[in-house]
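Work Package 3 (structural annotation) set out to generate three-dimensional models for the target panel prioritized at the project kickoff. During this period the team completed the workflow that converts sequence records into discrete structure tokens, so that structures can be stored uniformly alongside our sequence database. As a representative example, we reproduce one entry of 242 residues exactly as it appears in the project archive.
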Amino acid sequence: MLATWRIRPVGEYAVLIEFGSAIDEQINRQVHHIAHWIRAQMPLVRDVIPAYTTVLVLYSPEMGGLDWNGLVAEALATMPAQDTRGRRVTLPVAYGEEFGPDLNDVAQMHQMQRDAVIAAHAGKDYRVYCLGFSPGFPFLGPVLEAIRAPRRPTPRSTVPAGSVGIAEQQTGIYATATPGGWQIIGRTPIRLFRPELDAPIPYEPGDVVRFWPIDAKMYQVLANDPAIQNGPWPDQLWEGGW
């Protein structure tokens, strides 16, 4: 894909680099490559905030007058053909029942069996496009068209921490308890937001997340295991098996 972008000032010392508005893996790769490149090459930058299709750059006054179009072109020229930075993170998820109250509705929307929805959701890798909305919430995608579902017409006042939801072509995880309107189909027992750690969440943009179906009994085992819930991130996240 030929990259096209627009540079827009959004303050006296800030610019927004825009790559359109489509949710697209290649565009998102460009976004995060530029974000990494700016952090590495421009130490006077105060902050770099990537999203789905944009990069917000907050810079120091002494950096005024830069050719941002030229810098973006220079950064993209160093972009590798394949992702090399992202990790694979495997999260256990109990689907349906009290863990996924909207699973039946999603199945009915598509005239599918519940197990088929679970298999479709857990059967592929999801790119972490960006983080936002609430602490540790990853926007993941793309969801298979066969199980895409709209947001709920009325959001819930509280969605339990660990809940896994679908909203159109996105899937995501409520790392903390918060209001929300996504279709909740499952829940992970892993405590995903740990502010006491240097790395408070186990994934970052550019990583790949895969869901590992578990039953209610295993959910309780993991939820009540101090070694899993506290301290460093458990090795199973990276080793791909629960």
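Helices lie at 25-41, 68-77, 103-109, 114-122, 216-223, 226-229, 236-239.
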